[in-house]
## 1
Amino acid sequence: MTSFQTTSTRQLFTVLTAGALVLLVVHGLGRFIYTPLLPYLVADDQFSAPDGAAVATWNYLGYLMGAMLAIRWHRIDQIRFMLPLFMTIHVVTLLIITQTDHLTVISTSRWLNGVANGVVFVQAPALILEWLVLRNRASLSGLVYIGVGLGLLVSSGLVTGSATLLEGAERWWPAALLSIPLAWWGVMQLRKLDVPVRQHDDSGKAVINTPLMDRASIPLFLAYAGAGLGYILPMTFLPLLAKMELPPGHRLLDGTWVIVALVTIPSPWLWNKLGALMGDLPALRLNFMIQLLGVLAAVLWPGPIGLVLCAALVGSTFVGTVLLTQRIGRALHPHQGPRLSAAMVALYGFTQMAGPWLTKQWLDAGGTLVSAFGIGVAALVFGLVFTFLVPRPEVWHSSR
């Protein structure tokens, strides 16, 4: 244990950087680059807006399935095998999508890319958290999610910078090429982590996989479900909404996604700090309130004001929702580790998948995209209510 406690600042920086880059690749260059790409792909006549929503749904279905695979294969030795495998799948599926305009092939590739995203998004932060816990540095775990914000900024730059140079399937090339070196370096660093395959908890007792669902965790799972459905609508359709509401050439056509990216980058540090100051559970409730105001703004004030507020408030909160919920869940079930993280991401993935599907049904029925954001408002209200039913971990454990 002595070697764990003497971990250097350089080691911490390397591990957190590797984790951040891995999330940048699968989430920024895999998942969320699709959001700023969508208006261009629709304009290129690669597919229609409803078809674009269906493609997004396939990606989120893959994300859900990937998280469920991570529930099954959650041990440290399994993670060391699966991380490089699914990072390879990420790169291969991006390369495939650069070569086709066929909707079925695109949907299949985005589904497989979502599977890779789901596995890696669970396993990389979970592996790093276990490594940090052994070194009494668990409070740093949220910094890994800085990679998500950086990924949004990088994806925005890649799409905007190549907008006049590429067309159709070619628009995926920048993401595919950048993924290769970042994915390789990140995975190689994470595979080196000294994390034993633990059969006992911190007190020396044998680890038992007790039920994940109980009176304490069920409200947290339900709150997280509301968050998944609530945030995914602006994070999928905000640039498309801007294209529908703003005149050609308006600076917010690409600017909304830039705002999301810029405010997302410092948000893990911010919510880490707020969680330490006020407690993770009160911070999570505040997080939900701010996020709710952001989605509501897009509904109440269509146009520049609503778009900017939605981008700023949702972008600055959604990563905080993830890291705070994960930490609260682990505090309620400290022996569950990666399995708990996987279960939460699977639920999150299911509700994210439902968002684009519901939007497609709404658009096909003649509804507008801005009114579809009302689905997100209702989901966040639902989630906020359940955050008040989650017990504080210390109170929960003292009562058992």
Note: The chain has a mean pLDDT of 84.
## 2
Amino acid sequence: MSVADHTLDIEFAGPDSGAAPLTAPLTWGQRAIWETIVRTAPDDHYFNFGHVLKVPGPRRTVAEASTALAALVERHGALRTRLSEPGLPGEVLPDKAGGEPYQRLAERGRLPVVITDDDPDRVLDELAARPFDYVGEWPLRVALVLDGDRVTHVVLVFCHLAADGFGAEIALRDLRMLLLRGDRGGGAIRRPGALQPLDLARWQAGPEGRKAAETAAAHWEREFRRIPPTMFSAPTGSAADPPIWRALLRSPALELAVRSIAHVRRASTSTVLLTAVAALVGRFTGHETCAMLPISANRVRRGTADIVTTMSQEGLFTLDLDLGGAGGASFTDLLRAAGPAALRAYRSAYHDPADRNRVTTTIDLERGESIRPYCCFNDMRFADPGPVACDPDEITTALARTSLSWPMSQEKLNCRFCVHLTVDGVSLTADTRYLSRPDIERFLLELESFLVGAAVR
């Protein structure tokens, strides 16, 4: 960043004064991402994500932007909640904390904010490049980008313990309104205060939460007894250095094909892609049953739509690729079976990780081997582009605009195979000790060919 940068501390004071205790167990989403962070460290900056927000309306002074940021942190408890550990002096432990980490909500504090005139995208990359200090640092990093003495952009980087993609969008929506209205009080945001992570943690530990958890656990237990131990168990070529690589496929033809298939088969584009990825995983690995872990937003229950926290978790999707046939099922048959299987998977995503760990341990012992799919699917698009009728010639002509790049590599990841859907395209992040770089590229190109072929037929 610029040599002229400096840091300003913004004071905040939440509405929680007098509320006790200000600690609670981790929510299911927090615990799920925490376990993933632990397995990925020291490369856990992988889970940081952020946004560049262009200041709406008239450009604001640093003081006005600071006032809006303080109001944002005061409104959303997740942005002033840090990880804590038993043994800190003067703290009230949440029920059943034992020796486990828990969450601690701060009533007040100071948020450091970088003041800079550097390029906003470069600032975003720098703020996101290092892991968070989950105990000592606020779970939000902020920079104000200036043109002269006015703020043009606000750069925010979120710790994944505090927010997922949907939670971050809620925070951005509120900050945009606070900047536009210039009002620190309730007038700028007239919606009632959203559910807070501490409230959610207590609900999950109560009778309604336990009932939902038990239903999800039954699905994991049933399916773990029949799926392959893991989807990627043997090398397909030479490992790269570093071993974790991501390839990004930008393919207008694939997008058109998916929307066309969704139109004909009356399915969502997400289900079409999930099914196609599962089919190709079977082709690459030889497994007749594919087990994948799709990420679910988990925001369908009352009070969770507007909460800033991390709600997203893995569900368990299983698809029998043969479906009783001698030579493998058709893509039409697979799509028909995938609809209800995906619904069961997304329901199972709202689960207590402690139950999942218990189920995993039990089934490991029963089967005498470790059961870990290590195969993920994450549709990160905020809206399904929707089915649409497409001319086959339009789809095949678009193949000329396909491109593939390698935007990321690192030493360590908690998974072996992760497909992400974004507005930029379809990416595959994989451990090259189990899927080589040439095979990562081949998988994405075969996914395009598979879907284009299905659409034009």
Note: Residues 6-205 form a domain with the Chloramphenicol Acetyltransferase fold (CATH 3.30.559.10).
## 3
Amino acid sequence: MPRPARPSILHRLALPLLVVGLTLLGACSDTTGPDGNGDRPDPITALPRQLTAAEQTVIEQSTGFGLELIARAAAADDRPNVVLSPLSASMALGMTLNGAAGGTFDAMRSTLGFDGLTQDEINASYAGLIDLLVDLDPDVEFSIANALWANAGFDFRQSFADRVTQSFDATIETRDFALPATLDAINGWADDATNGFIPEVLTELDPNLLMVLMNAIYFDGAWTESFDPAETAPRDFRRADGTTVRVDMMNASEQTFPLGHGNGWGAVELPYGGGAYAMVVVVPAGDVVEMIEDWGPADWAAVRASLTEQEVDLLSIPKFTIEHDAFLNPVLADMGMGVAFSSGADFSELREGGGLCIDFVRQKTFIEVDELGTTAAAVTTVGIGPTSFIGLVADQPFFFAIHERLSGTLLFTGVVGDPTVRDGGPGEGEGGCH
């Protein structure tokens, strides 16, 4: 059966470059201008403080994680559009990392790109990054929220809870996962944290789960230079299989944008607000999935380094709205943290004695791009459950047999319906010959 077409270059590359350095996707489709009245905001040309060495390492290494995540997800997903948030996935897994130990900790740390950093350094870097990103541009609304939901009766380590609340500013709630109200509360949290753009992250909640860790990000702001809606017009968009579809294309001419090109690709950067945040669009000469397959931080750095201000004859980009929902277990396992999903997982820093594994990592994303800007939201949910049980629990009526294994002779057979009854007395009936 032929593979479905992968139509939209922009759809597939809108969020792969979400958190790489400080060039982030985001913004809004309902603002009237960068500051609400159409005036251009003051440009932001420097960070408010210098990054620590650990923060710099986390940002650089997270770039590799984000690029590998989108490349593997795009190659494995038959849907035409794949939209992911590396930041949201990294932060949710970063919280979970605080419960890991031994080889599980090493595997997760390596997959996230944090080799060589201690847990304290990783946590401090996440905390610093949250503080830095949220308040970076007054003309862009960017929020990060973290939450931990524990099933009633689950005895998790207080030290784990302390690290997650202190470093990730996470809220902690203990609820009965068997109650429908708990599922409503979890979905309600996601709805609030994304301003209603992701109203539901779970359709059901397994009562056997022990914990759910969640990260939500929301970004809302306008283009620094908006597109004129009067210039938007239908145009053919060529899918990967050569077929075309009509889409509304936003157009700009005789304006200045950062443009660049490299080996088989062209790129443009579209700033938001004061320019600290921007969308980078990379259009390849060939297949986009093949282009990003082997990309790493150096390739992304080459894209950014190629960008120079140029006046364009024409810049044409489609309007689009995409919702994406994906379970990331297979991708993350292929990236090196498969042990975290197995019965051999070691989460003894989360609960004394461990016996836990990651049941699922699920991410839902939303993105809308129009003439005024972009709205983007993501929620990553990590479910923690007991390790897969191998064995048998005879806690209901059962049959048994004692046999001689070589000959197959049955010596005793029985059905046990109540192990507490030692002698039930004789059954009904009477003896005697008739």
Note: The longest strand covers residues 356-369.
## 4
Amino acid sequence: MGMTLGIDLACRAAHVASLAGPDGRLVWRGRKFFSRTVELERLWADIGRDPGELTVVMEPTRNAWIPVAAWFRRRGVKVVMVPTTQSADLREYFSKHTKNDRLDSVVLARLPLLHPEGLREHVGDGPADPLRRVVKQRSSIAKRRTAVFNRLDAQLELLGPGWYDAQGTDYGKATLAFLARYADPTVVIRLGQARLARFLRRYSRGHWREGKAAELIAAAQESLRLWDGDGIDFAELAADIAVEAEQAIALTAQISDLDERIANLYAEADPAGIVRSAPGVGPVLAGIIAGRLGDPHRFTSLAAVRSYSGLVPKVSQSGTSERTGGLTKAGDPLLREAVWMAADQARKLDPQLAAKYARLMAADHRHHDSAVCHLATILLTRIATCWRTGQPYQICDVDGTP
């Protein structure tokens, strides 16, 4: 066993490092430095060891760990990332009532002696990987757009059900363009059917014509009769709806751009399209699974892949008793969400998954969500296996026939 450098990382303040020998005795501790090349070189000189004999142990503190880990990996050093809960428990063992950066770095430096089986070398760039980052960004924007759609639903309810009947609730490009300009019933009526039809033809690419314009004018007239000119300011309501519609238009454009980036990055990460070959996995979900799962070879086993997804149940054992609870949800939440969505579609395409779903629902009396979670672990295991072996997903019948 070589020497261990424990680093307590900070986002704005200085990092603190401590160096421990093979026996856990401290060589030095409390060295402060920032993520600057000059200071990292000075720290490297203070270590004064063969890089092959050094292990760097850190916690994943926001994104501050990424450049430090990359700098040490370029010098052939083994970098280990430790979950914050694990280091916190060890810190409490050392000193229950003390928490400081120097103690944290000492705990991390002595971790190979205290918990050697928990040290796994970290590979990959984490959030520095563009595919991993962009799929997270797309998910965040999509959820923001869904919140905007929900607010639009609530505001349009004030105008009456005729607006839903006329324009639907999918909020496409033509619907959002209409709401951004003409959510005031009086303005719609004043605009007239001919001009409104020209507007709709332009933004719907010819799908909406005079008939749709007549429906919207009828809905506007019904709104005026519903309120009978009392109790609501249509101009103010239209201004509020326009704000939400313009936000939705901007978010939709951003999602479209991100989808194009995801497609290009996914093609680089999985040129053979192995993840995409799985049933229920479309272009967006393939990018999410590939980006959030990362290199499948970094996992020691397929059980570790399932554990990383957080789709495995909690287990509590004591003596002869054993209890299982809900999902651990300890892994990547975006990966878990993507695999669940893929499994819900895959059960309609893969006969084996369909049969498994039927057994879970009939014999085990599972709830739909619980059954799909079970299928999601199977699907993720198969995807990881295919990716590790370089073979595309093969859909088979219940008897194993392709």
Note: The two ends are 49 Å apart (CA to CA).
